[in-house]
Design goal:
Blueprint: E1 2-3, H1 19-32, H2 34-41, H3 47-72, H4 88-110, H5 115-121, H6 125-135, H7 143-163, H8 166-169, H9 173-194, H10 201-223, H11 230-258, H12 260-267, H13 270-282, H14 288-306, E2 310-315, E3 318-324, E4 344-350, E5 353-358
Parallel strand pairs: 1-5
Antiparallel strand pairs: 2-5, 3-4
Length: about 375
């Protein structure tokens, strides 16, 4: 076992890197923008069929991108760890909750609510994700982060109590409960995905979008839903590729570093991106109470995202495989033919280590406090 002083300035710092926050915010922006555009497509398609097309479009787009990458930018060896048979139970949960239940409930809710109200109610995903991460999946949060989560919940309650105004919610609790159910489903999905965040994010996303899209398409065909026009299919494929496929990849990459609870804070910006787009597209003007609720939720998300987390901690001995570069957490020998000059993936061992540095609850920092 090696020990590093508590004030070690060479220890890696997740808080000093903007890559993971940028990926988390990028995922939120792309997904949030999908809400008003999906509402445009809803009158021309059955919700189940539209959800299936969004996911199958994402899967098709990823297959095309991967094929082009292999042709024009082939890699010498894999930089990411692939999916294993032991991952199938977790992948099944991700598909059921995140790929089927969540989109179906969201699209059903949007039929009863305006795009602005629907976008802002999606903020419930943040507290649901955080509560599950803390109570079930072993994440940790400090006092400031807990206060931020409380602010988001209060903001959502203000919105649900009528902050969006009669024109936005129209007294329809069915739509609000449907979107709340979608948020709970995605909260489960987020925490399960955190468990696979060391795997290849493209492989995880492709599996999820393909399985979820096929499952929903089968249900839609069984129900006898009408087939959409070719133009609607093309629009759904393009929207799914960007707002579901690319967004999911960025989300998984952010989960790898930030953990489920903190990435939920960054992802809380998604409804605001959707609300802005909806206000422009549908000329919807939210009232003062809606803006106040949105500001409260934004402040709560900021408190969670920027709260410092530094203390002396112990890394237990562990052996696993994932993409990595060499730093203080990855100082090991390599098998023949594997270069350590760039990001690479192979099975490796972490010896026990005690040190202190700012960190997130990534797979190397899931410890007691």
């Amino acid at each position: 076992m090696s020990e590093t002083p508590a004030n070690d300035s060479t220890a890696p710092s997740a808080h000093n890197s903007w890559r993971a926050p940028a990926e988390g915010l990028g995922a939120a922006l792309l997904f949030g923008m999908s809400t008003p555009f999906a509402k445009i497509l809803l009158p021309h398609s059955d919700p189940l069929t539209l959800a299936a097309m969004l996911y199958l479009g994402a899967a098709a787009g990823l297959f095309v991108v991967e094929a082009l990458t292999r042709i024009f930018a082939p890699l010498n060896g894999s930089r990411e760890a692939g999916l294993a048979r032991a991952d199938l139970p977790v992948m099944a949960g991700i598909v059921i909750f995140g790929g089927v239940a969540g989109p179906i409930l969201m699209l059903a809710g949007l039929k009863h609510l305006s795009a602005v109200a629907g976008s802002l109610l999606l903020n419930l995903e943040t507290p649901f994700t955080i509560l599950l991460a803390l109570a079930v999946f072993g994440d940790q949060m400090g006092r400031r982060e807990a206060q931020g989560a409380a602010a988001i919940v209060i903001g959502a309650m203000v919105l649900g109590a009528g902050g969006a105004g009669p024109r936005d919610l129209n007294g329809d609790l069915i739509g609000a409960f449907a979107i709340a159910g979608a948020c709970l489903s995605w909260a489960i999905d987020n925490n399960l995905t955190q468990r696979l965040s060391l795997r290849d994010p493209v492989a995880v996303t492709r599996f999820k979008t393909s399985a979820a899209g096929l499952a929903m398409l089968a249900i839609a065909l069984f129900r006898g839903g009408p087939a959409p026009r070719a133009g609607i299919i093309a629009a759904a494929v393009m929207l799914g590729t960007v707002s579901y496929g690319v967004s999911l990849i960025l989300n998984i990459r952010a989960l790898r570093t930030l953990g489920a609870a903190r990435q939920a804070a960054y992802f809380a910006t998604a409804p605001f991106a959707g609300a802005i787009a909806a206000a422009i597209i549908f000329d919807e003007r939210p009232g003062a109470a809606t803006l106040a609720a949105g500001l409260l939720m934004a402040l709560g998300a900021g408190a969670i995202a920027f709260a410092p987390h530094l203390h002396q901690h112990r890394h237990e001995t562990i052996e696993h495989e994932h993409a990595h570069v060499h730093d203080e957490h990855h100082a090991h020998a390599h098998p023949a033919g594997v270069s350590s000059a760039a990001a690479h993936s192979h099975r490796h061992r972490h010896d026990s280590l005690i040190h202190a540095h700012p960190h997130y609850p990534d797979p190397h920092h899931r410890h007691g406090h």
